[in-house]
Amino acid sequence: xxxxxxASPTALSRLARVYGxxxxxxxxxxxxxxxxxxxxVNKLRGDVDGVERYFENLGFEVKFTDLVDDVLxxxxxxxxxxxxxxxxxxxxxxxxxxxxxxxxxxxxxxKNIDRVREGDLVxxxxxRGRPVAMGxxxxxxxxxxxxxxxxxxxxxxxxxxxxxxxxxxxxxSGLIYPQSLPSVLAVxxxxxxxxxxxxxxxxxPGGKLTYASQLMGNKGLVIGIDRSPVKVERLNENIKRLGVxxxxxxxxxxxxxxxxxxxxxxxxxxxxxxxxxxALGVRPKLYDDLTDEKAxxxxxxxxxFVTAGLNLLKRGGRLLYSVCTMCIEECEEIIEYxxxxxxxxxxxxxxxxxxxxxxxxxxxxxKAVRFHPHIHGTPGFFYxxxxxxx
Length: 390
Known about the structure:
- By secondary structure, this protein is α+β, with helices and mostly antiparallel strands.
- It has 2 domains: 87-158, Roll (Archaeosine Trna-guanine Transglycosylase, Chain: A, domain 4); 180-387, Rossmann fold (3-Layer(aba) Sandwich).
- The chain has 12 helices and 19 strands.
- The chain has helices spanning 9-19, 23-30, 51-57, 93-99, 169-172, 181-190, 207-215, 229-241, 257-260, 292-312, 332-342, 373-376, and strands at residues 37-41, 62-64, 71-74, 87-91, 105-106, 110-113, 121-125, 131-137, 151-158, 176-178, 197-200, 221-226, 247-251, 268-273, 313-323, 345-346, 355-356, 369-371, 381-387.
- The strands form 3 sheets. Strands 11, 12, 13, 14, 15, 16, 17, 18 and 19 form a 9-stranded mixed β-sheet that branches. A 6-stranded mixed β-sheet has the order 5-9-8-7-4-6. A 4-stranded antiparallel β-sheet has the order 2-3-1-10, covered by helices on one side.
- Strand 7 (121-125) and strand 8 form a beta hairpin.
- Helix 6 crosses helix 7 (207-215) and helix 10 packs across helix 11.
- The longest helix has 21 residues, at 292-312.
- The radius of gyration is 21 Å and the shape is globular.
- It starts with 8 loop residues before the first helix and ends with a strand.
């Protein structure tokens, strides 16, 4: 049996507020990776020639989208039934959602492995006990307490199958980066230009930052910030791998970046805010643990990043706000906050795909962009470009 997305009561109420009678269609769409999976071709390392053939040789159907010239769409295979084995390995939610589309299991993602020997065939289970893959264990139960990294289970059969992107030579060489189509279009809407100063307040792992550098032709300055040293390290690895030359990174709490970077306050051309969110739009999804309190806290948290970003901007500067969710308080309410508190209003940007925001929740929502998973075949996503006024 193929596991479907089990939405929490809070998630159901938030999604119902947006989708009404289409709620079940949304839940079903979030249970799968969709018809196409997006991979960005990094033109700082090369061009698109040969990338399409590379994936075709791996056995996948691919195509380039006519919306942009640097995104390749790969069709996932599946769904497949998972063979049952007596031995089990339980992994965390994030790992399970990756494993169900073909990823291997690494040691940090394991929650429980009992009576397993090296070489055993095992079912990989999510924390709720649902099988997402079958694989071969490369470690034993006795090994786990002494390990903190490394490959633990080789995936042999998963519900869906995508190319093992991070093990491919073209990934190691920096020619590709997995990035959703809405995320790519969001950065394009910001339109970062050569010579500008751009600050990414939520930079890790680096998808938007490195794409901004690509669009800027590696000229100007992009500052990437994250509060986690581990995430900054990963960000730096991607910057190097992708050939980005115009970026520098900082480890600090970017909610206070306008204070920490006081020399840049009021001088920045563009800011990107992609804050922690409820991530209800991420797919495939197994379940969520969203509560009413957490939803309110996330909205207030996101507003702090928006405030810091607007304070960094010069007059006429642009702020890209984007989230991979569909909750009103994380989407249209942020537009209203920027307008009422900061006198900053959305720009009318090109919308080559997606729908406008929901006008019943913001009078400025027609300038925002929403991607609905059951309609557009993408993750659920929201973005808007806000202009700093006088």
